[in-house]
Amino acid sequence: GSSGAFDLDAQPKLLKNFIANKTPILYDTFNDAFIDLDAGRIQGILMDEVYARYYIAHKPDPSSYRIASDDFPPENFAVGMRKSDNVLRSKINAGLKALKADGTVAKLQKKWFGKVEE
Prior knowledge:
This is Arginine-binding extracellular protein ArtP. The chain has helices at about 5-10, 10-20, 30-40, 50-55, 85-100, 105-115. It is mostly helical. It has 2 domains: about 5-65, no CATH class; about 80-118, no CATH class.
């Protein structure tokens, strides 16, 4: 159940250009996939961009990697809570807004993912 395997199943028409006439290899961990990528045993890794940016930002030479973006559908993330937790939702939203306003979110994005999202 990796997200890469899900994307491979969910976006077959989009991915056919990337893996035409090749057999995808499924890895247990992203670390294992990067080991094979670094060793030249594979040509690329299909993974969520957030994870890719994290892994690449922490490599010895991040500039030796490239993230190929295409027409993948955008992904949204959320904090889950009970529908009745209005006070909690308000506090979380206020906290997130404050972290964005004071630049903390941008600093964390740059540190951990190597890129600041708008």
